[in-house]
Amino acid sequence: MNAHAQPQDAAPNRAPAPLLRAVQACFIAYALFHLYTSLFGMLEPLSQRGLFIGGGIGFVFFGLAADRWRRAPLAAIGDLVLGLAGAYGGLYVTLHADRLMDIMNDLTPVDMAMGVMTILVALEAARRTIGLSLPIMAVISLAFYLLGNHLIGGNWRPPRVSFETAISTLYASTGGLFGLLADIGTRVVAIYVVMGSLLMALGAGDVFMRAATLVAGRAYGGPAKVAVVTSALFGTISGSAVANVMSVGSITIPTMIRAGYRKGFAAGIEATASAGGQIMPPVMGAGAFIMAELLNIPYTTIAAAAAIPAVLYFSAIYFSIDCYARGNHLMPIPRHEVPRARDVFLSLDALVAFGPLVLLVWLLALDFTPTFAGGAATLALIAAAALVRAIVCLRDRRAPAEEARRFLLQLWEGLADGGKSVVVIAALLATASLLVTVLSATGLGVKFSQLLLSFSGEHLVGVLLVAAGLCIILGMDVPTTASYLLTASVVGPVLVKLGLAPLTAHLYIFYFAILSAITPPVCASVYAAATIAGENFWTVAGQALRIAGAVFLIPFMMVYRPELTMNGSFLWIVYSVAICWTMVVAISGASIGFLLGPLRWPERLYLYAGAAALFYPTFYADGVGVVMIGLFLAVRRFRGPARRLA
């Protein structure tokens, strides 16, 4: 699903240019539909969600057909048929929304046939785009929903349900396929995905890279620290660890290797930094908007609560890089290669890169809905890019026709990439909706929660460990959003019952869902980074865990030090941040093996012990930990020059 039509000899397996353009036009229409409805209001719920899900799963297959048209034309035709079936399945509920929403309505055989067809096509669309795990879980849950009453006895036996009731719940209502997740997807997530794609297409990426170089380039190990800052900026827009690695890592990983970093370490830096972009405000990807809807709280509340944990996440990576760079004498970027602040932030390109983000934050702060704020920021982005092109034409005496053609091509590519990304999210949310609906309709989610409480003995630590493990296991083969959703539906109520604030519980789950992207044995962002670096997957995975060592403790710190989520007085927040930063420095140094000089294993274990004391939230433990780490740093400070890290 490339944005460019290519000659046959350059891409022999691609469809003819007219078909590629037609598929791109579908993606663009899908993106523009969400831009229009975000600005001028949504359709009736079932109609809006029907177009979102139907268009999403339909266009998935159109894109797949274009990708393998020449290689397997018969299979491509089959994909086109599946695409038409999926699109019409969503269009059908849109056209019959009034009748289907009538509580006195009885489903016709055609309604039920359309429901079965759309559910099957949605499952296949998810299998093609995100892998087997989530569709298999959905199929098992559907079998439990339909057949469980006949096959299972005891407490786990689900209520009896007729086939018509099942189709009504899963298809012909604002539940199931077209339930809350579809509502969040079409109302909030889609417009931010489109905005992120347009930002990249219209040149914001280069501005972000230059801004990151300005901020971090003159520090030790400058290229790696630039990669961290750049990935944070990209990740908050894209919301995808893999997309972040592929877009940013293709530049930063070779740059780090040329600067003297080992291949595995360079790839590990990019993998861990790219994963963390999903928890970095102001956008935070799809998961944060879903969290806001599930908890029924403003998105700005979630962004504020996630800000300090996000800073701690990137601080852990930053300190790890600093220790490694100092130990290996990796110098800063030369001063003449670092751009000046006015050339970055006062340039015309900065208006395109940062202007829409500033407008977005301002509108959210004024309590405009995330939907309208996203739509307005996207429209402002297009207008700013057009204005900059016009100014450049006048200033540099460029041909207006050529500059207009270039701008329209970038706009076409950005909208096409945005629509393409949204259709994948639609397929994911459709399948996740089926699973979540069954968990609710059968009471299975409540039963799992009760089982978890009995298994853990109602101890918070046990439930936290189970939640972390479940997020990582689910996240091995499904995106962050799905891992978060499934874990939150089962473990979230248990954590709240044990005394956690709902926002803290969901942030904890979301954080570990993000960490699944860098946790072996299956971690997509690590695999992508290893591919770019040309390094063994397991080598990169080991380095990613080494770099991100302290990161895995931050979610627990959010639970036991709620001040990290802006829950407390200013002085308590500052105190908790200082304690956590001290812990991060100690763990980063111990994991890398360098802190004011190379560390032997007894010294590393000593630092781990000091960090462990800070993990326990009491004044006594804090004092012990700070004294241990402070004494260590004081002794090391007065030693001779540091040797090179082995």
List keywords for this structure.
646 residues, mainly alpha, 3 domains, globular, disordered N terminus
How would you characterize the overall build of this protein?
By secondary structure, this protein is mostly helical. The chain contains 28 helices and no strands. It has helices spanning 17-40, 45-67, 73-95, 97-100, 109-130, 133-151, 163-170, 180-201, 204-216, 222-238, 241-258, 263-276, 285-295, 299-327, 341-345, 348-365, 370-396, 400-441, 444-456, 460-474, 480-497, 502-515, 524-533, 537-547, 554-560, 570-592, 601-615, 619-637. The longest helix has 42 residues, at 400-441. The two termini are 45 Å apart.
At a glance:
This protein has 646 residues and is mainly α. The protein has helices spanning 17-40, 45-67, 73-95, 97-100, 109-130, 133-151, 163-170, 180-201, 204-216, 222-238, 241-258, 263-276, 285-295, 299-327, 341-345, 348-365, 370-396, 400-441, 444-456, 460-474, 480-497, 502-515, 524-533, 537-547, 554-560, 570-592, 601-615, 619-637. It folds into three domains: 17-178, no CATH class; 190-416 and 441-552, no CATH class; 561-646.
